[in-house]
Design a protein that fits this description.
about 450 residues; alpha+beta; BirA Bifunctional Protein, domain 2; Rossmann fold; 3 domains; seven-stranded mixed sheet; five-stranded mixed sheet; 15 helices; about 30% strand; binds adenosine-5'-triphosphate
Length: about 450
Protein backbone atom coordinates (compact mmCIF):
# COMPACT_ATOMS: atom_id res chain seq x y z
CA UNK A 1 0.00 0.00 0.00
CA UNK A 2 2.82 2.38 0.89
CA UNK A 3 4.25 1.42 -2.47
CA UNK A 4 1.06 2.66 -4.15
CA UNK A 5 1.49 5.98 -2.36
CA UNK A 6 5.06 6.36 -3.63
CA UNK A 7 3.94 5.65 -7.17
CA UNK A 8 1.07 8.10 -6.85
CA UNK A 9 3.31 10.85 -5.50
CA UNK A 10 5.73 10.25 -8.39
CA UNK A 11 2.89 10.41 -10.92
CA UNK A 12 1.59 13.63 -9.38
CA UNK A 13 4.98 15.25 -9.86
CA UNK A 14 5.63 13.76 -13.31
CA UNK A 15 2.27 14.79 -14.73
CA UNK A 16 1.78 18.10 -12.98
CA UNK A 17 -0.86 17.33 -10.36
CA UNK A 18 1.07 18.17 -7.20
CA UNK A 19 4.62 19.47 -6.70
CA UNK A 20 6.55 19.89 -3.46
CA UNK A 21 6.40 23.68 -2.95
CA UNK A 22 9.54 25.85 -2.77
CA UNK A 23 11.46 22.94 -4.28
CA UNK A 24 14.27 25.01 -5.80
CA UNK A 25 15.00 26.28 -2.29
CA UNK A 26 15.10 22.74 -0.94
CA UNK A 27 11.39 22.50 -0.11
CA UNK A 28 9.68 24.12 2.85
CA UNK A 29 7.46 22.96 5.68
CA UNK A 30 5.88 20.02 3.87
CA UNK A 31 3.85 22.26 1.62
CA UNK A 32 2.67 21.55 -1.90
CA UNK A 33 1.67 23.35 -5.07
CA UNK A 34 -1.19 22.11 -7.23
CA UNK A 35 0.21 22.05 -10.75
CA UNK A 36 -1.65 22.55 -14.04
CA UNK A 37 -3.75 19.36 -13.76
CA UNK A 38 -3.99 19.38 -9.97
CA UNK A 39 -5.45 22.87 -9.97
CA UNK A 40 -8.06 21.81 -12.56
CA UNK A 41 -8.96 18.79 -10.43
CA UNK A 42 -9.20 20.99 -7.35
CA UNK A 43 -11.44 23.45 -9.13
CA UNK A 44 -13.71 20.66 -10.38
CA UNK A 45 -14.09 19.25 -6.86
CA UNK A 46 -14.87 22.69 -5.43
CA UNK A 47 -17.42 23.35 -8.19
CA UNK A 48 -19.09 19.99 -7.64
CA UNK A 49 -19.29 20.68 -3.91
CA UNK A 50 -20.74 24.16 -4.40
CA UNK A 51 -23.25 22.90 -6.91
CA UNK A 52 -24.26 19.95 -4.71
CA UNK A 53 -24.57 21.81 -1.43
CA UNK A 54 -25.21 25.45 -2.33
CA UNK A 55 -26.49 26.37 -5.77
CA UNK A 56 -28.86 23.42 -6.21
CA UNK A 57 -30.48 23.93 -2.79
CA UNK A 58 -32.99 26.54 -1.74
CA UNK A 59 -32.00 26.32 1.92
CA UNK A 60 -28.32 27.19 1.40
CA UNK A 61 -26.34 30.37 0.76
CA UNK A 62 -22.61 31.00 0.51
CA UNK A 63 -20.18 33.58 1.83
CA UNK A 64 -16.51 34.34 1.23
CA UNK A 65 -14.84 35.91 4.26
CA UNK A 66 -11.31 36.99 5.14
CA UNK A 67 -8.51 34.77 6.43
CA UNK A 68 -7.56 37.30 9.10
CA UNK A 69 -10.48 38.14 11.36
CA UNK A 70 -10.92 39.99 14.62
CA UNK A 71 -8.75 38.21 17.23
CA UNK A 72 -11.63 38.31 19.72
CA UNK A 73 -13.46 35.81 17.53
CA UNK A 74 -10.83 33.17 18.28
CA UNK A 75 -10.89 33.93 21.98
CA UNK A 76 -14.66 33.53 22.11
CA UNK A 77 -14.58 30.33 20.07
CA UNK A 78 -12.07 28.81 22.48
CA UNK A 79 -9.29 28.44 19.91
CA UNK A 80 -6.77 30.79 21.53
CA UNK A 81 -7.10 29.01 24.85
CA UNK A 82 -7.76 25.47 23.80
CA UNK A 83 -6.89 24.62 20.20
CA UNK A 84 -3.96 22.49 21.29
CA UNK A 85 -2.24 19.26 20.43
CA UNK A 86 0.11 17.28 22.66
CA UNK A 87 3.71 17.19 21.53
CA UNK A 88 6.78 15.32 22.66
CA UNK A 89 10.41 15.41 21.52
CA UNK A 90 12.85 12.54 21.14
CA UNK A 91 15.81 13.62 23.26
CA UNK A 92 18.22 11.58 21.14
CA UNK A 93 17.48 12.68 17.58
CA UNK A 94 15.47 15.82 18.46
CA UNK A 95 12.54 14.82 16.25
CA UNK A 96 9.15 16.11 17.33
CA UNK A 97 5.96 14.02 17.41
CA UNK A 98 2.26 14.20 18.26
CA UNK A 99 2.24 12.46 21.65
CA UNK A 100 -1.39 11.34 21.24
CA UNK A 101 -0.57 9.70 17.90
CA UNK A 102 2.42 7.77 19.33
CA UNK A 103 0.34 6.61 22.28
CA UNK A 104 -2.61 5.64 20.13
CA UNK A 105 -0.40 3.58 17.83
CA UNK A 106 1.14 1.82 20.83
CA UNK A 107 -2.06 1.08 22.76
CA UNK A 108 -4.94 1.50 20.34
CA UNK A 109 -6.43 3.93 22.87
CA UNK A 110 -7.21 7.59 22.48
CA UNK A 111 -5.84 9.66 25.40
CA UNK A 112 -6.45 13.03 23.79
CA UNK A 113 -6.11 15.79 26.37
CA UNK A 114 -4.63 13.53 29.09
CA UNK A 115 -0.99 14.62 29.17
CA UNK A 116 0.06 12.63 32.26
CA UNK A 117 -1.52 9.47 30.93
CA UNK A 118 0.34 9.89 27.63
CA UNK A 119 3.65 10.40 29.45
CA UNK A 120 3.00 7.26 31.48
CA UNK A 121 2.35 5.18 28.34
CA UNK A 122 5.46 6.51 26.57
CA UNK A 123 7.63 5.54 29.53
CA UNK A 124 5.95 2.32 30.69
CA UNK A 125 5.48 0.86 27.22
CA UNK A 126 8.96 2.03 26.17
CA UNK A 127 7.46 3.49 22.99
CA UNK A 128 10.22 3.82 20.41
CA UNK A 129 11.09 6.91 18.37
CA UNK A 130 10.13 6.25 14.76
CA UNK A 131 13.27 7.92 13.51
CA UNK A 132 16.12 6.67 15.73
CA UNK A 133 14.50 3.86 17.71
CA UNK A 134 15.40 5.14 21.16
CA UNK A 135 12.86 5.70 23.94
CA UNK A 136 14.18 8.80 25.61
CA UNK A 137 11.27 11.22 25.66
CA UNK A 138 10.94 14.83 26.74
CA UNK A 139 7.97 15.96 28.78
CA UNK A 140 4.64 15.81 26.95
CA UNK A 141 3.35 19.36 26.59
CA UNK A 142 0.60 21.24 24.84
CA UNK A 143 1.16 23.25 21.72
CA UNK A 144 -1.32 25.79 20.36
CA UNK A 145 -2.02 25.29 16.67
CA UNK A 146 -3.03 28.87 15.90
CA UNK A 147 -0.85 30.67 13.34
CA UNK A 148 0.01 34.10 14.70
CA UNK A 149 0.81 37.12 12.65
CA UNK A 150 1.24 40.81 13.31
CA UNK A 151 -1.05 43.54 12.06
CA UNK A 152 0.22 47.00 11.40
CA UNK A 153 -2.15 48.74 13.80
CA UNK A 154 -1.24 51.85 15.75
CA UNK A 155 -1.73 50.50 19.26
CA UNK A 156 1.37 48.28 19.35
CA UNK A 157 2.20 45.48 21.78
CA UNK A 158 -0.16 42.54 22.17
CA UNK A 159 -2.79 44.49 20.25
CA UNK A 160 -0.82 43.78 17.10
CA UNK A 161 -1.37 40.04 17.24
CA UNK A 162 -3.80 38.55 14.78
CA UNK A 163 -4.40 34.97 13.73
CA UNK A 164 -4.75 33.23 10.40
CA UNK A 165 -8.08 31.43 10.68
CA UNK A 166 -7.71 27.78 11.83
CA UNK A 167 -11.06 26.89 10.21
CA UNK A 168 -13.50 28.63 7.90
CA UNK A 169 -16.47 28.09 10.24
CA UNK A 170 -15.67 31.04 12.52
CA UNK A 171 -16.34 33.58 9.80
CA UNK A 172 -19.73 32.01 9.18
CA UNK A 173 -20.95 32.46 12.76
CA UNK A 174 -19.95 36.10 12.92
CA UNK A 175 -21.83 36.83 9.66
CA UNK A 176 -24.98 35.06 10.85
CA UNK A 177 -26.81 38.33 11.52
CA UNK A 178 -25.77 39.93 8.23
CA UNK A 179 -26.93 36.91 6.27
CA UNK A 180 -30.27 36.69 8.10
CA UNK A 181 -30.86 40.44 7.67
CA UNK A 182 -29.89 40.60 4.01
CA UNK A 183 -31.24 37.39 2.48
CA UNK A 184 -34.57 35.67 2.85
CA UNK A 185 -33.27 32.56 4.56
CA UNK A 186 -35.60 30.77 6.95
CA UNK A 187 -34.59 28.24 9.59
CA UNK A 188 -33.58 25.53 8.78
CA UNK A 189 -30.93 26.96 6.47
CA UNK A 190 -27.21 26.69 5.93
CA UNK A 191 -24.33 29.04 5.21
CA UNK A 192 -21.40 27.60 3.27
CA UNK A 193 -17.87 28.74 2.73
CA UNK A 194 -14.82 27.41 0.89
CA UNK A 195 -11.41 28.73 1.79
CA UNK A 196 -7.97 28.41 3.26
CA UNK A 197 -7.36 27.51 6.88
CA UNK A 198 -4.05 27.42 8.74
CA UNK A 199 -2.87 25.20 11.57
CA UNK A 200 0.61 25.04 12.98
CA UNK A 201 0.50 21.23 12.91
CA UNK A 202 3.25 19.61 14.99
CA UNK A 203 3.89 17.06 12.27
CA UNK A 204 2.65 17.68 8.75
CA UNK A 205 2.86 14.82 6.31
CA UNK A 206 1.42 11.93 4.37
CA UNK A 207 1.60 14.02 1.21
CA UNK A 208 -1.38 16.42 1.12
CA UNK A 209 -3.24 14.68 3.97
CA UNK A 210 -1.92 16.89 6.77
CA UNK A 211 -0.81 20.35 5.74
CA UNK A 212 -0.25 23.56 7.68
CA UNK A 213 -2.05 25.55 5.02
CA UNK A 214 -5.07 23.78 3.60
CA UNK A 215 -8.53 24.37 2.28
CA UNK A 216 -11.90 23.55 3.82
CA UNK A 217 -15.43 23.43 2.49
CA UNK A 218 -17.69 24.01 5.45
CA UNK A 219 -21.38 24.44 6.22
CA UNK A 220 -23.12 25.69 9.31
CA UNK A 221 -26.69 24.42 9.12
CA UNK A 222 -28.95 26.35 11.50
CA UNK A 223 -31.94 24.56 13.00
CA UNK A 224 -34.73 25.16 15.47
CA UNK A 225 -33.44 23.97 18.89
CA UNK A 226 -36.75 22.21 19.48
CA UNK A 227 -36.49 20.20 16.31
CA UNK A 228 -35.69 16.50 16.54
CA UNK A 229 -32.28 16.63 14.89
CA UNK A 230 -31.30 12.95 14.69
CA UNK A 231 -32.86 12.33 11.29
CA UNK A 232 -31.28 15.44 9.83
CA UNK A 233 -27.90 14.41 11.25
CA UNK A 234 -28.20 11.00 9.60
CA UNK A 235 -29.18 12.67 6.34
CA UNK A 236 -26.03 14.84 6.39
CA UNK A 237 -23.90 11.77 7.06
CA UNK A 238 -25.41 10.10 4.01
CA UNK A 239 -24.74 13.21 1.94
CA UNK A 240 -21.13 13.24 3.06
CA UNK A 241 -20.75 9.57 2.14
CA UNK A 242 -22.34 10.23 -1.23
CA UNK A 243 -19.90 13.07 -1.82
CA UNK A 244 -16.98 10.74 -0.99
CA UNK A 245 -18.35 8.33 -3.60
CA UNK A 246 -18.71 11.17 -6.10
CA UNK A 247 -14.94 11.63 -5.67
CA UNK A 248 -14.53 8.04 -6.79
CA UNK A 249 -14.24 6.33 -3.39
CA UNK A 250 -15.65 2.80 -3.25
CA UNK A 251 -18.28 2.19 -0.54
CA UNK A 252 -16.07 -0.40 1.18
CA UNK A 253 -13.32 2.22 1.59
CA UNK A 254 -15.60 4.61 3.47
CA UNK A 255 -16.66 4.19 7.09
CA UNK A 256 -18.06 6.19 9.99
CA UNK A 257 -16.27 6.78 13.26
CA UNK A 258 -18.41 8.15 16.06
CA UNK A 259 -16.57 10.03 18.80
CA UNK A 260 -17.17 8.58 22.25
CA UNK A 261 -19.67 10.61 24.24
CA UNK A 262 -17.17 11.26 27.05
CA UNK A 263 -14.59 12.59 24.56
CA UNK A 264 -16.91 15.18 23.04
CA UNK A 265 -16.36 18.87 23.65
CA UNK A 266 -18.82 20.10 26.28
CA UNK A 267 -20.92 21.84 23.62
CA UNK A 268 -21.16 18.97 21.15
CA UNK A 269 -24.08 16.56 21.20
CA UNK A 270 -22.63 14.22 18.63
CA UNK A 271 -19.59 14.07 16.34
CA UNK A 272 -19.00 11.55 13.58
CA UNK A 273 -16.04 11.40 11.21
CA UNK A 274 -16.35 10.03 7.71
CA UNK A 275 -13.13 8.10 7.20
CA UNK A 276 -11.47 6.94 4.01
CA UNK A 277 -9.13 3.98 3.67
CA UNK A 278 -5.95 5.84 2.67
CA UNK A 279 -2.94 3.80 1.51
CA UNK A 280 -0.93 4.99 4.54
CA UNK A 281 -2.17 3.57 7.85
CA UNK A 282 -5.72 2.75 6.75
CA UNK A 283 -8.93 4.58 7.68
CA UNK A 284 -8.43 8.25 8.54
CA UNK A 285 -10.66 11.31 8.78
CA UNK A 286 -11.83 12.70 5.47
CA UNK A 287 -14.90 14.70 6.54
CA UNK A 288 -16.53 15.47 9.87
CA UNK A 289 -20.05 16.11 11.11
CA UNK A 290 -20.78 17.73 14.46
CA UNK A 291 -23.84 18.93 16.33
CA UNK A 292 -22.49 22.12 17.95
CA UNK A 293 -25.70 23.21 19.72
CA UNK A 294 -25.92 27.00 20.19
CA UNK A 295 -22.39 27.22 21.60
CA UNK A 296 -20.88 29.43 18.90
CA UNK A 297 -23.72 31.89 18.39
CA UNK A 298 -24.07 32.33 22.15
CA UNK A 299 -20.32 32.73 22.68
CA UNK A 300 -20.06 35.38 19.94
CA UNK A 301 -23.18 37.17 21.12
CA UNK A 302 -21.76 37.38 24.61
CA UNK A 303 -18.24 38.41 23.57
CA UNK A 304 -19.40 40.97 20.99
CA UNK A 305 -22.49 42.31 22.72
CA UNK A 306 -24.54 41.77 19.54
CA UNK A 307 -27.69 39.65 19.70
CA UNK A 308 -27.39 36.65 17.42
CA UNK A 309 -30.95 35.36 17.28
CA UNK A 310 -33.55 34.30 14.81
CA UNK A 311 -37.12 35.51 14.72
CA UNK A 312 -39.63 32.95 13.56
CA UNK A 313 -42.41 35.26 12.31
CA UNK A 314 -44.86 32.45 11.58
CA UNK A 315 -44.90 31.35 15.22
CA UNK A 316 -43.89 34.64 16.78
CA UNK A 317 -40.90 33.01 18.47
CA UNK A 318 -37.38 34.28 19.00
CA UNK A 319 -34.56 31.80 19.57
CA UNK A 320 -30.86 31.09 19.14
CA UNK A 321 -30.64 28.35 16.52
CA UNK A 322 -28.66 25.18 17.06
CA UNK A 323 -26.20 24.22 14.41
CA UNK A 324 -25.14 21.09 12.58
CA UNK A 325 -21.71 21.43 11.01
CA UNK A 326 -20.70 19.28 8.03
CA UNK A 327 -17.05 19.96 7.26
CA UNK A 328 -15.11 18.74 4.24
CA UNK A 329 -11.35 18.95 3.73
CA UNK A 330 -10.62 19.96 0.15
CA UNK A 331 -7.04 18.69 0.08
CA UNK A 332 -8.13 15.37 1.59
CA UNK A 333 -10.90 15.24 -1.05
CA UNK A 334 -8.29 15.71 -3.76
CA UNK A 335 -6.12 13.02 -2.18
CA UNK A 336 -9.10 10.67 -2.06
CA UNK A 337 -9.87 11.32 -5.73
CA UNK A 338 -6.22 10.68 -6.65
CA UNK A 339 -5.93 7.50 -4.57
CA UNK A 340 -9.24 6.10 -5.81
CA UNK A 341 -8.40 6.89 -9.44
CA UNK A 342 -4.92 5.37 -9.50
CA UNK A 343 -5.03 2.12 -11.47
CA UNK A 344 -2.36 -0.11 -12.96
CA UNK A 345 -3.46 -2.42 -15.76
CA UNK A 346 -1.74 -5.25 -17.56
CA UNK A 347 -2.41 -5.16 -21.28
CA UNK A 348 -1.28 -7.39 -24.14
CA UNK A 349 1.04 -4.65 -25.35
CA UNK A 350 2.46 -3.98 -21.88
CA UNK A 351 1.13 -2.25 -18.79
CA UNK A 352 -0.47 1.13 -18.32
CA UNK A 353 -1.20 3.50 -15.47
CA UNK A 354 -4.58 5.15 -15.75
CA UNK A 355 -6.24 7.70 -13.49
CA UNK A 356 -9.88 6.62 -13.50
CA UNK A 357 -11.39 9.83 -12.14
CA UNK A 358 -15.16 10.18 -12.32
CA UNK A 359 -15.52 11.75 -15.77
CA UNK A 360 -16.97 15.03 -14.49
CA UNK A 361 -13.94 15.57 -12.22
CA UNK A 362 -11.14 14.75 -14.70
CA UNK A 363 -8.78 17.72 -15.16
CA UNK A 364 -9.06 17.40 -18.94
CA UNK A 365 -12.31 16.15 -20.44
CA UNK A 366 -11.18 15.68 -24.01
CA UNK A 367 -7.83 15.60 -25.78
CA UNK A 368 -7.63 16.33 -29.50
CA UNK A 369 -4.90 14.77 -31.65
CA UNK A 370 -4.00 15.28 -35.30
CA UNK A 371 -2.80 11.82 -36.39
CA UNK A 372 0.41 13.29 -37.82
CA UNK A 373 1.82 16.66 -36.89
CA UNK A 374 3.62 17.22 -40.18
CA UNK A 375 0.42 17.14 -42.27
CA UNK A 376 -0.94 20.70 -42.26
CA UNK A 377 -4.43 19.64 -43.39
CA UNK A 378 -4.75 17.25 -40.41
CA UNK A 379 -3.41 19.87 -38.00
CA UNK A 380 -5.82 22.51 -39.35
CA UNK A 381 -8.80 20.19 -39.00
CA UNK A 382 -7.72 19.18 -35.47
CA UNK A 383 -7.35 22.84 -34.50
CA UNK A 384 -10.86 23.49 -35.72
CA UNK A 385 -12.24 20.57 -33.66
CA UNK A 386 -10.24 21.72 -30.63
CA UNK A 387 -11.56 25.29 -30.96
CA UNK A 388 -15.14 24.03 -30.89
CA UNK A 389 -14.72 21.53 -28.06
CA UNK A 390 -12.72 23.91 -25.86
CA UNK A 391 -15.65 26.34 -25.80
CA UNK A 392 -17.62 23.74 -23.86
CA UNK A 393 -15.17 21.34 -22.22
CA UNK A 394 -11.73 21.52 -20.68
CA UNK A 395 -9.87 20.36 -23.79
CA UNK A 396 -6.22 19.83 -24.64
CA UNK A 397 -4.45 19.80 -28.00
CA UNK A 398 -1.69 17.23 -28.25
CA UNK A 399 0.49 16.53 -31.28
CA UNK A 400 3.55 15.27 -29.45
CA UNK A 401 4.98 11.82 -30.28
CA UNK A 402 2.95 8.98 -31.75
CA UNK A 403 -0.71 8.41 -30.91
CA UNK A 404 0.10 5.48 -28.61
CA UNK A 405 2.32 7.71 -26.50
CA UNK A 406 -0.34 10.41 -26.40
CA UNK A 407 -2.88 7.86 -25.13
CA UNK A 408 -0.49 6.80 -22.34
CA UNK A 409 0.00 10.42 -21.33
CA UNK A 410 -3.73 11.19 -21.33
CA UNK A 411 -4.36 7.95 -19.36
CA UNK A 412 -2.04 9.24 -16.63
CA UNK A 413 -3.83 12.57 -16.62
CA UNK A 414 -7.15 10.72 -16.51
CA UNK A 415 -8.65 12.23 -19.67
CA UNK A 416 -11.87 10.30 -20.40
CA UNK A 417 -11.98 10.99 -24.17
CA UNK A 418 -9.27 11.22 -26.84
CA UNK A 419 -10.30 12.41 -30.29
CA UNK A 420 -8.03 11.64 -33.26
CA UNK A 421 -8.30 13.42 -36.60
CA UNK A 422 -7.01 11.20 -39.44
CA UNK A 423 -7.16 11.16 -43.24
CA UNK A 424 -10.71 9.78 -43.24
CA UNK A 425 -11.76 12.80 -41.18
CA UNK A 426 -10.85 15.02 -44.14
CA UNK A 427 -13.14 12.97 -46.37
CA UNK A 428 -16.17 12.24 -44.21
CA UNK A 429 -16.01 14.62 -41.21
CA UNK A 430 -15.79 11.79 -38.68
CA UNK A 431 -13.18 11.25 -35.96
CA UNK A 432 -12.07 8.40 -33.71
CA UNK A 433 -13.09 8.74 -30.06
CA UNK A 434 -11.18 6.52 -27.68
CA UNK A 435 -12.59 5.74 -24.24
CA UNK A 436 -10.11 5.95 -21.33
CA UNK A 437 -11.50 2.99 -19.39
CA UNK A 438 -12.45 0.48 -22.07
CA UNK A 439 -9.86 1.73 -24.60
CA UNK A 440 -12.49 1.05 -27.23
CA UNK A 441 -12.62 3.33 -30.24
CA UNK A 442 -15.69 4.62 -31.97
CA UNK A 443 -16.17 6.62 -35.13
CA UNK A 444 -18.22 9.76 -34.38
CA UNK A 445 -19.36 12.61 -36.68
CA UNK A 446 -17.61 15.88 -35.80
CA UNK A 447 -20.94 17.70 -35.56
CA UNK A 448 -22.16 15.13 -33.02
CA UNK A 449 -19.05 15.19 -30.80
CA UNK A 450 -20.34 17.66 -28.21
CA UNK A 451 -23.58 15.73 -27.69
CA UNK A 452 -21.68 12.41 -27.60
CA UNK A 453 -19.36 13.64 -24.82
CA UNK A 454 -22.10 15.44 -22.90
CA UNK A 455 -24.19 12.31 -22.79
CA UNK A 456 -21.30 10.26 -21.36
CA UNK A 457 -20.51 12.89 -18.72
P1 LIG B 1 -7.35 15.58 12.35
O1 LIG B 1 -7.93 14.78 13.48
O2 LIG B 1 -6.95 14.75 11.15
O3 LIG B 1 -6.28 16.55 12.79
P2 LIG B 1 -9.45 17.45 12.78
O4 LIG B 1 -10.44 16.60 13.49
O5 LIG B 1 -8.59 18.38 13.53
O6 LIG B 1 -8.54 16.53 11.83
P3 LIG B 1 -11.41 19.26 11.79
O7 LIG B 1 -11.02 20.30 12.76
O8 LIG B 1 -12.66 18.50 11.97
O9 LIG B 1 -10.18 18.23 11.63
O10 LIG B 1 -11.33 19.89 10.33
C1 LIG B 1 -12.28 19.63 9.33
C2 LIG B 1 -11.66 18.99 8.09
O11 LIG B 1 -10.55 19.76 7.64
C3 LIG B 1 -11.11 17.60 8.34
O12 LIG B 1 -12.13 16.64 8.19
C4 LIG B 1 -10.06 17.47 7.28
O13 LIG B 1 -10.60 17.04 6.05
C5 LIG B 1 -9.57 18.90 7.10
N1 LIG B 1 -8.28 19.10 7.79
C6 LIG B 1 -8.10 19.33 9.10
N2 LIG B 1 -6.80 19.51 9.39
C7 LIG B 1 -6.13 19.40 8.21
C8 LIG B 1 -4.76 19.51 7.82
N3 LIG B 1 -3.82 19.77 8.71
N4 LIG B 1 -4.44 19.34 6.52
C9 LIG B 1 -5.40 19.08 5.59
N5 LIG B 1 -6.70 18.98 5.90
C10 LIG B 1 -7.08 19.14 7.17
Amino acid sequence: MQDKMQKLVALCKRRGFVFPASEIYGGFANSYTYGPYGSELKKNIKDLWWKTFVSSRRDMVGIDGPIILHPKLWEASGHVGGFNDAMVDCKQCKKRFRADHLVEEATGQDFEGELEKMQEVLVNEKVKCKVCGSSDWSEVRVFNLMFKTEMNTTEGGEENIAYLRPETAGAIFIEFKNVVDSSRVKVPFGIAQIGKAFRNEIVAGNFIFRLREFEQMEIEYFIDPELAWEELFEDWLLKQEQFAMALGAKPEDIRRYEHAQEKLSHYSKKTVDIEYNFPFGGFKELFGLAHRTDFDLKAHAEASGTKLEYFDAANNRRFVPHVIEPTFGLDRSILTALVAAYTEEELEEGSRIVMKFPRNLAPVTVAVFPLLKNKPELVAKAEEVFANLSMIFKAEFDDNGNVGKRYRRQDEIGTPFCVTIDFDSLEDDTVTVRDRDTMEQERVKIEELVGYIQEKL
